[in-house]
Amino acid sequence: MNRERSTLHVAFGVDENFFRGAGVCIASILDHNPGVDFVFHVFTFGCSADSRARLDKMARQRGVPMHVHLLDEAVFSRYRHNPRSNYSNAIFTRILMPGVLAGVTERFLYVDSDILCRGDLAPLLDLELGEHVAAAAADVHTIAQRRLKAMALKGDFYFNSGLLLIDVANWNQARITEQAIELIGSGSYSLDYPDQDALNKVAEGRVLKLHPKWNVMFSLLGELRFSHRKLAVSDDAVMLHFGGPLKPWHGWSHGCAQEMFQRHQRGSGWADVPLDQPKTYKQMHQCATYHRGHRKYLRSLMWYGAYLGKKTSVLLRGARVPLLVVALQLGAAVQESASWVYAAAGL
After folding, report:
1. pLDDT on residue 146
2. Bridge partners, residue 207, by sequence
3. Which residue range or ranges hold the Glycosyl transferase family 8 C-terminal domain (predicted)?
């Protein structure tokens, strides 16, 4: 089904853990773009009845089409190098989208589910792509320099695939999907970011460079000790990308990111869902650090104690972990815990 170019199609690739992120990102896009017509697409290899119901309810409430596309693992069977043995399905969703959306739209905006919109997307409707298969912003400098060398790229442009404006016809004609999946499965390169590395390699020279404002990247984990401070966001930033393991829906993430996420969550199908609480020992350690940064020392000690208990349990359950390694790690943890006690006591 072809639509007018004035309608912007936006696509997400998710597993069950990221449906809420996609829903809140959709809400943020709608909240900041009342003058733009949208069609949203959510691609997944599996969808719970609850997630589908929430998205359907949101589509009715916001009056905007939102389609779920269920992908089939059989799609990989035709490739010479089947990548499924080493990687999860989730990394392939954005690569497969242009084939599914052929005949539906001429172009679409792929957006990671850990992105929030804070500006006007209308300029992307009229951006001239020419012969390019996509447009994207450069990744952060340290990652880009490392991956340029690792992937033997000839130029100086390594893009972040968290936001891609894709020309469907150009992409499919260049067989980007097929080439990327073959490369991932071939084992020819050591891939830190499998789909992103592969796309940078097979689409080299065919991706238009976007202004950084379209994909402004933050590491909330790096901001953890300073989460009481305001995030430094440039006035022209349109899309904020919270990469890394710590997300705005975590209850111990940066206050500004949390506030932004919860504000848009109220207009999504997940309005009743509370922020996530720590489950793993790494998350418990992050939560302790967060509260310590806010000078809530007793709460930080409580979470640090939970972290020690969880980590000890995990280490002792790992039968292949030598007891000496366990002892050394626990010893380091005890030393670190002393600094938390001193902080709580004001020493």
Report:
1. 97
2. 134
3. 258-311
Residue 58 CA to residue 246 CA, distance in Å, equals 26
Of 340, 229, 236, which is closest to residue 288 (Cα–Cα)?
A: 340
- At 195, list the tokens: 């789909």
CA distance 175 to 12: 21
Kindly tell me the sign of the dihedral angle through the C-alpha atoms of 292, 295, 297, 298: negative
Residues 6+ apart with CB under 8 A from 306: 278, 284
Task: For 201-277, list the strands marked E by DSSP.
Answer: 207-209, 216-219, 239-243
Dihedral sign for Cα 262, 264, 265, 266, please. Answer: positive
Give the up-direction half-sphere exposure of residue 237: CA atoms within 13 A in the CB hemisphere. 16
Instruction: For 346, list phi and psi in degrees, rounded to 5.
Output: 75, 25
Distances (CA, A) of 209 to 117, 160, 168, 199: 19, 10, 17, 14
DSSP label of 275: P
The first and second tokens of residue 136, run together, are 């994207």
For position 185, what pLDDT does the model report? 85
* Residue ranges, the chain, pLDDT below 70: 1-5, 78-87, 227, 318-347
Burial annotation 67-85 (CB, 10 A radius, 16+ → b, else e): ebbebeeebbeeeeeebbe
Q: Residue 157 has what pLDDT?
A: 98
Cβ atoms < 10 Å from Cβ of 164: 28
CA dihedral 104, 105, 106, 112 (to 10 degrees): -120
Evaluate the CA torsion angle 141, 142, 144, 146 in order and state its sign: positive
DSSP 230: P
